[in-house]
């Protein structure tokens, strides 16, 4: 892991520009706005805004986990629901924040049409593993 120090970070600002939302990322039902954190921290962390761009479908529900050191999600708009290993179904609403411990297995079970999330992950490059 890269040590966190001022030497491997730089100042950056990311202002909202609707054109910055891109599809083709990890999930087909989401668009992502990269906030520039990975570049500013030399990969120590990443942060992005996620918008759900398709209505929820059970076909999107795949049990998976992320090989991360830290993951925080904050609901900016709407609501988002997941089932977490050992925690059951949790529905987070606008203003809710949660931390997913490293490798916790979870399944997305629903979201509102206006759902928008902020996600912060360490490190920037990490694996998402679909459980079988």
UniProtKB/TrEMBL annotation:
<feature type="domain" description="Cupin type-2">
    <location>
        <begin position="61"/>
        <end position="119"/>
    </location>
</feature>
<dbReference type="Pfam" id="PF07883">
    <property type="entry name" value="Cupin_2"/>
</dbReference>
<dbReference type="InterPro" id="IPR011051">
    <property type="entry name" value="RmlC_Cupin_sf"/>
</dbReference>
<dbReference type="InterPro" id="IPR013096">
    <property type="entry name" value="Cupin_2"/>
</dbReference>
<dbReference type="InterPro" id="IPR014710">
    <property type="entry name" value="RmlC-like_jellyroll"/>
</dbReference>
<protein>
    <submittedName>
        <fullName>Cupin domain-containing protein</fullName>
    </submittedName>
</protein>
